[in-house]
What does this fold into?
Amino acid sequence: MWDRNQMAARAAKELRDGMYVNLGIGIPTLVANYIPEGVNVTLQSENGMLGMGPFPYEGEEDPDLINAGKQTITQLPQTAYFDSAQSFAMIRGGKIAMAILGAMEVSEKGDLANWMIPGKLVKGMGGAMDLVAGVGRVVVVMDHTSKYGESKVLRDCTLPLTGKAVVDRIITNLGVLDVGHKGLHIVELADGVTEADLRAATEATIVD
Amino acid sequence: MNKVYPSAAAALEGVLFDGMTIASGGFGLCGIPELLIAAIRAAGTKGLTVASNNAGVDGFGLGVLLESRQVKKMISSYVGENAEFMRQYLSGELELEFNPQGTLAERMRAGGAGIPGFYTRTGVGTVIAEGKEHKDFDGQTYILERGIVADLSIVKAWKADPSGNLVFRKTARNFNPPAATCGRICVAEVEEIVPLGSLDPDHIHLPGIYVHRIVQGEHEKRIEQRTVRKREA
It folds into this structure.
């Protein structure tokens, strides 16, 4: 089984040289720590920045410089700033090659739910609906099951959707799955996980 | 014509009324018009509909207008940082219209640009699409979203010149330009008002035509999530 950092490291292997990429909050943020040597990617932050740098050194925090998770960050030599309308024009316009996002549930059809639990958690979708509708490729990074052991990789999502048929690849603590026309395809198993383990933890249809 | 006002209260004189719609710039607590929000709180204007990406936090930003029950409805994409917001929303005291973040930004941009509606793929197949016109273009389904025209825009910029030309700083730009354009009246608070001619005309982020009133003031600029890294020894 992979831990959070191993999942992030696996997700980082999806990155290709020259890509413009948006990383979501949570495990996806950790992906930035594992960008492979020789792969140069530009991180977009949807609050209005291309070329997001690491966290600042203590004492160098700037309240005018934050990422979409409202964390203090830094700029890089290639950084550009712009307003929110411009930011989502590049997202909606298909200029961002990939988004790596967290999820509460994902379905075998590529449906994604990650923005609310009715009656319990009402935080909002932020930019997630725009991202999944607009970027070239959507990779989801999530735990395969809930803390109660229930599968989060489902035939159909039970929670309100963020997007319909938008997910291309699912990376979990148990392995990597691709969304196909008739169901999910196993791409890779996590260390120490068998195909039987993965199938047992998955409610969705696994084709092969 | 003078656009420069001596205080936030003076800059809002005559433009506030109960039941009005206000578009606000800012993302989280970054680049929010904190002085104008405080002045609206002091003015006591009620029944407000506020279009803003976030709703501030308890005790700061738009959170202060929630505490004083001046807001009837929020149009936002993310409200997760505000316990008072959640309490009022779950008890039915506060209306909430969730908009995807890019849809909200484009609704403001469109409203300011004289575009009453636009089609977007964002939200198709979700609750956001319910009740909205669907239309297919080139084999893809889109939904119709409306432009927002607000009675008042409140924004925060870094620098202004007396003609209202604005320059923003880093990610504090965020929703401020689209919010500024969609108001019938736009009031901007800035850290510095510089003499005419001292801003490079090629480097102006928002032309003064969109900005009707300006006020300079001291900003607290609170940090929401202070994250740092260790210096290597």
Q: What stands out?
A: Chain A is about 15% helix and 25% strand.
